[in-house]
Amino acid sequence: MSRSVSHFMTTASLFLHALILSLTIHRAISVTDAPKYCEPVTANDTDSVLFALNVEFLEAEFFLFGALGRGLDSTNPGYSKGGPPPIGGQKALLDDPVVARIIEEFAYQEVGHIRAITRTFGGYQRPLLDISRENFARFFNKIAGYSLIPPFNPYANSINFLLATYFIPYLGLNGYVGTLPRLIDPNSRRLVAELVAIEGGQDAVVRTLLYKKANETVVPYKFTVAEFTNLISARRNFLGGCGNKDEGIILPNQKLGAENQTTSNVLSAGANSLAYARTPAEILRNLYGSGSESKPGGFFPKGANGTIARRYLTG
Description:
The chain is built from twelve helices and no strands. By secondary structure, it is mainly alpha-helical. It is globular and about 45 Å long.
């Protein structure tokens, strides 16, 4: 068997494994009415928008440290409102100058998002965040199904940082898509519309950069870039527990693509190429890495902040 055929078969097998995992969850939930834990949360505009501040803090710190080697407490003292400093942030070796400039821009955008939300709705202390390479390594071990050697390090190079980034802005996008229709005040709706536009843009940029290298192997692992994205997406579906709302950058067949005509999946979308929505509970299950909105861990060792997140923690 030729090397190219062997590689194709391995790639197809991994894609199908991730796809089957996602579709199995989707079918299990679709055959009955959506259980309560998949329903939108009941909350006022303020609490709904402030929930998103957790993700904005996470994005800001990860991008600031990755691009500059320092976080909010250095660039914008006071924005954390006295919250504990993040665990494990460090400057990434962004060996691609284009990626380096983009991540720096993302970082400043997230600072603006925090300012916009807190000026409109108040805010809360930055929760304790774990953006250490050890935390990311644990996550990537889960998606791979075994302990990667060496442990995955998001700060090691541009591709690793983009793969780590792939996990985060998309959840922010899902959250805003789910929140927007439930907001009452026009000012709240306008702010979230403005936020979701940038979150969607960030996700599109990250996916495009990864798509350009889709078939490249992520050294020293056996997975290609596309395979990693499919596995990450399958993991998000699994943790969210509310169906298929995620796919990697290349699909295993055209019937899963836009208008059933393409295997490219630069923009993740559902029927009619519309964006997926996720509830706060689904997002917390992913950010905690536990599959439970009541069991902190992952990026939020002590849980997220705000009325909605704390409600899940206190029962």
